[in-house]
Design brief:
Number of strands: 7
Distance between the termini: 148 Å
Radius of gyration: 41 Å
CATH superfamily of the largest domain: Flavodoxin domain
CATH architecture of the largest domain: 3-Layer(aba) Sandwich
Helix content: 40-55%
Shape: globular
Number of helices: 6
Order of helices and strands: HEEHEHEHEHEEH
Strand content: 5-15%
Length: 242
């Protein structure tokens, strides 16, 4: 009888160990799956956060790059490079920078003040296309009565005895904006010297036309100056007018 009881006890123990083993095996895959799912979610959230950060950084970089361009496009309001109280001033308009370079060299040679005129509406490359009959400059130059506005015409010519006026040649004449300028100022008692830059055209009647529009001042003939003219050549030109 004791042997039977011992045998039955052994059987029950074996069944118990088997059940425990099955329970451990069945719970392990579930735990592994849960851990893997949590890791995947954490990885996805981390990736989304990194992508979001990259987009934000890219957008900020674009805005930072755009800001200087927008600022550069704003016209300046003070045309003086330096107001020294000299008795000579160089006033000029330069659409592409060519006349600007010549004007700066004249100011350097003559120890003059220098003032840049800025159009109220800046000229684009399309506006300057002389091959386009409908471009802005073509339309302006075909109408002698057009007077484009100047954004910064606050220069006071009182106290100056000599005024150099520079501009590019458009369609054989000074840009209409120069007519706007001379008609707004009194040149009485001043010597006015026009100069121009161009791809090859001379100064023509542009100086005399401005003189007629100004109605005052002692206007000299002026001249076309090469874009690469040196300061010594400018001095020779000035000496030749005396």
């Amino acid at each position: 009888m004791k042997k039977v009881i011992i045998s039955l006890a052994a059987v029950f123990c074996m069944l118990g160990f088997t059940a425990c083993g099955n329970t451990d095996n069945s719970s392990s895959p579930a735990a592994d799956t849960s851990a893997q799912t949590q890791a995947d979610l954490q990885g996805t959230e981390s990736q989304q956060t990194e992508q979001s950060a990259e987009v934000t950084e890219s957008e900020q970089s674009d805005e930072e790059k755009a800001a200087p361009e927008q600022t550069a496009e704003q016209p300046q309001t003070d045309g003086f490079d330096e107001n020294t109280g000299a008795d000579t001033i160089v006033v000029y308009f330069s659409a592409t920078g060519t006349t600007k370079g010549v004007a700066e060299r004249i100011a350097s040679v003559t120890n003059a003040d220098i003032y840049e005129l800025i159009p109220a509406e800046l000229y684009s490359d399309a506006d300057l296309d002389w091959n386009d009959k409908n471009s802005r400059t073509t339309i302006e130059m075909n109408d002698p009565n057009v007077r484009p506005a100047i954004a910064n015409d606050t220069v006071d010519l009182d106290g100056y005895t000599t005024v150099y006026i520079g501009y590019p040649i458009w369609w054989g004449d000074a840009p209409r904006m120069m007519s706007t300028f001379v008609e707004a100022h009194d040149f009485d008692g001043k010597t006015v010297i026009p100069f121009c830059t161009s791809g090859g055209s001379g100064i023509g009647r542009s100086g005399s036309n401005l003189a007629s529009q100004a109605g005052s001042g002692n206007w000299l003939d002026g001249n076309r100056l090469d874009a690469n003219i040196s300061e010594s050549e400018i001095q020779d030109w000035i000496n030749g007018m005396n």
